[in-house]
Amino acid sequence: MSDQENNGALLLTLNRAARLVGVSRGALQKRIKDGELPTFEGMVKPEDLLRAYPDTQLEDAAVLERFTHIKDDAFAHRVRERLLPEPEVLAERLAGLGRELAQAKVLVEHYKTITDWLYDKFSEHEKSGGQEIKGIMGPLKLWLRHELEKESSIDHLQSLVVKESFLRLMTATVRLLPNRREFFVEGSDSILDAALRAGVSLRYGCSNGNCGLCKAKVVSGKTLPVRHYDYLLSEAEKNQGYVLLCSHTAVSDLEIETSEIEGPRDIPAQEIAARVKKIERLGDDMALLHLQTPRTKRLQFLAGQSATLETGNGAEAEYPVASCPCDDRNLQFHIRRVPGERLSEYVFRRLKNGDIVSLTGPQGEFTLREDSPHSLIFLAYGRGFAPIKSLIEHAMARDVAESMHLYWLAGKDGHYLNNHCRAWADALDNFRYTPLEAEPAKYGTALKQVGKEHPDLADFDVYAAGPAPFLTAVKKFLRDRQFPESQLFTNRVDG
Description:
Layout lengths: L3 E3 L2 E3 L2 H8 L3 H9 L12 H7 L9 H13 L12 H42 L2 H19 L5 H16 E7 L4 E5 L4 H7 L17 E6 L2 E3 L9 H5 L2 E3 L3 E3 L3 E4 L12 E14 L2 E7 L13 E5 L5 E5 L9 E7 L5 H8 L6 E8 L11 E7 L3 H14 L5 E7 L7 H10 L3 E7 L5 H11 L6 E7 L1 H12 L8 E5 L3
Parallel strand pairs: 3-9, 16-17, 16-19, 17-18, 19-20
Antiparallel strand pairs: 1-2, 3-4, 5-7, 5-9, 6-8, 10-11, 10-15, 11-14, 12-13, 12-15
Helix pairs in contact: 1-2, 4-12, 5-6, 5-7, 13-14
């Protein structure tokens, strides 16, 4: 289970604790690492959480909405309908909370009986004992009465428990085994959709209940079908708790045995006919191409990877995917108009909404190292921002880094999504954005700003994307500062 009792004490997962007090998981992990927040088997007690965050406004509903704001407002392309859980799911969760309430009432009565008995025993010893015993029993009785009548000091804890119960009613936590990665299932999402939105890369195929590739074993907790599926599980699989993640939602907190995609080699090559959803001009020579895949054939990829596009004139070219894998149907590509390049000319002159663009991929190994303990610095030049954007959105969805800092270098008017980056900085406490003007001959001068703001880079992983001369300048800049090569990841993106 995700949240459980240990000798009567409520324990919270780090994901749920972070959401309750309105901080990132990375910030919570830093408190734990610094010894400011004790844990029990990777979980925290509500009272310890309140001691670490005494200024938390637990009655403020905005805390619960913070992550919604980040994911829906800052990720403007990923607007999605927020739905309540299905009535059957709500009924099951209410029933579960009701059982817990009944158990809690029984425990309260049991503890009240024990404290009354203790008080009576103290009184008996006080009356029958000598002066020394009276000197001990009297203060003990006063202390016991004081503790039993004290209410104001537990108001915040009570608010936290109420809020945690509401969160459990509206969401369920899924923990994947054996790596213990966690994510929330909200509304009427399937487990697969919730995992993808949270940046968790599970294996799947059709996502429509036909192929069975998303089959997983439920170790604990309860699920409910939310859509029809044709794939037939064997009786043995049903008895062992297997379900299709694309067709079931979580009724209660779950533990599931399943395999994740570990790297680019785990993803099969795919060919998909996607439809043009929108072409948005970001400048005279830059366009944001929105493609949408069929519901039953979405593009599986890792943040930072590329895909080959082919347009109706037979032209093809490879472009980084500029969006997050958490929305694998709606894909974005940054297309710079290059005279004489057939595909970009076609996008600017002839391509229109509803047209078909063929996708092949994904390609590339410029992906996020999620198991790294380091904070993140992103360096982009020009259109190198496209794969960096995908990495940043994935890092936000996964909440994997304590802090992130984006430096976007470009020529004059070259920061074509400047407001988008500023929206990230406004929405997230642990994200900083610094746009820098730099012509190709001035890479080194601009990079000095990074060294000035981060004199000690050893605690960072650096992801850089841009043309070859820019990457050469980045490598020299970091080498001069004895930066570990194993913490630098680069991707060549021209234009």
